[in-house]
Amino acid sequence: MKSKYLYCPVLALAACLVTPAAARAQSGDSRWSLEGTIGWDIGLSGDFLAASSGSVNGVPVVIQSQSYNTVYGTGIQWQAGLGYTVNEESEVRGQFMYQKSGANAVLVGKAGASSDLYGTFDDYEVWNFEGEYRRYFQRHDKARPYAALAFGIADIPRINGTFTALPAGAIRAANDLYDGVAAFTFAVNGGVLYRLNDRLDLKGQVGLRHVSGLAEVDSLQGTGLANVNDKSARWSVPIAFGIRVNF
Q1: Whose CB has fewer CB within 10 Å in the chain, the N or C terminal residue?
Q2: At the topology level of CATH, where does 31-246 sit?
């Protein structure tokens, strides 16, 4: 009989612990979540090279403006984030994003009277850390839309460039084109979560992102080409798809 009375409080305590957890799982009311996405960063504005003219090794050089899209194309972004639900409509998140894009050899202008000037550049690489506030709207069947604001810091390593004029031998110069920088980022995002079950959602998102300018360098001082760095701040439209895990 004694053991019977000992078991009762234990069973009651277990029931108290399990029942809320089960109810929370059934309602999908999870406080924490993980998200992983892959997407594309479509450039809207910003020049990787601004229009400029000067001389290199005594040869007159004219550089035409070159957008990020022209030099690097549309980069692929990978993102992972951890979120905490404040209440039914609000969530705060910490996110990490990585992007790397290889450059093409680009016709950037003229050297001398008639030689074409080509540029080749290091990869454009970004490590972005940001905080996000997300506001959810009323669910429609399995879909729940949201809007979000995000602020962060983007670590962008140094970018070197090599300029070559054809015919070969007319001019060839290698430069530290941009120093490494911690750039400021700001984004406005909108998206939809589509519920698969109480633990899993599919995610689709589109946004508008600003990244402040890259760091100017001293190696172009005295050549007349220093202002090629002047318009490197950029706006882009990131589009992402992924999955969310609630726990």
Answers
A1: N
A2: Porin (2.40.160)
